[in-house]
Amino acid sequence: MNQVVNALRSSCVQDGCTITSLLDDHPLPLLIASQEGQSIHTLSDTLRAIALDTLGTTGGVLFRNFKVPTPLDFKRFAASFGMPLGTYEFGSTPRSKVFAGVYSSTEYPAHQSIPLHNEQSYTRQWPSRIWFHCMTSSQTGGETPIADSRQVYQAIDPAIREEFISKGLLYVRNYSSALDLPWQQVFNTDDRSKVEQYCQSQGIDWSWSEAGELSTRQLCQAAVRHPVSQEWVWFNQAHLFHISAMAQDLRQTLIEAVGEAQLPRNVYFGDGTPIPDATLDAIRAVYANTSVAFPWQAGDVLMLDNLLVAHGRNPFSGDRKVIVAMA
């Protein structure tokens, strides 16, 4: 880490930038800050190369004080790192499409927290990189906490870790506009045959109710090896999908109304057995203990390796606009 920082410092002097760890006691994220407020498109090839190297080791880079005038400039910058930007298929949270390749961040109410997670780790196909661009910072709160997924993996009780890895995870979803996202929004189509084609290609079991509502089940990983470093990372969203993620009163109300089998989302061990609430609470505690956060500044661009770094959202007040691109 120190070698990377020193190398960046020497090159940034020439490019009108400074480089340091944003947080004094944590290497994540690395900060590349413009001293002259130049356009983000003028970032030198040297800095781009070292930023990519840093992304593969530290997992995250924050670009600050650069000019990013429009969402199109943000898209252009994200795409300039050489990977095609993806669409938000099989999503689990509400987002709005800004234009192709760029989306709003999750549109949950401002008073709610979004737990730390790796993007789309509840399925078998996920983005390898993700970018966040703060267009408007909130009056209070609204940070995007992040955590090193390697540290999360190491900090989880070995018995829990081994059970999750050996059994895998079974995600169960029931799509309904009354309780959660409708399937038309999740799959970006009104055509049932296209939904079925997607499910078949991704190893997702599906069924339709007489009323035309969709249910899916998918067996997925609990942890993976990073494709470059081969390090193990904790990579799932069991703590988000599990029934224990709901407030107790809402949980009881929904079970009484529709039954556990028809909840909008839930997760089990891969053999179909339930995951104890206490197990998920222990995992949530690990995320809380390993996460770091910093206040957004308007214009910030945060670039993350989606396998190495988990992200979330803190509650906020005032206007907040953060957009997202994935590759």
UniProtKB/TrEMBL annotation:
Its cofactor is Fe(2+). GO terms for molecular function: 2-oxoglutarate-dependent dioxygenase activity. SUPFAM superfamilies: Clavaminate synthase-like. Keywords: Antibiotic biosynthesis, Dioxygenase, Oxidoreductase. It comes from the Bacteria. This is Taurine dioxygenase, alpha-ketoglutarate-dependent. Coiled coil: none annotated. Residues 27-324 form the TauD/TfdA-like domain. One of its GO terms (biological process) is antibiotic biosynthetic process. The keyword Oxidoreductase applies.
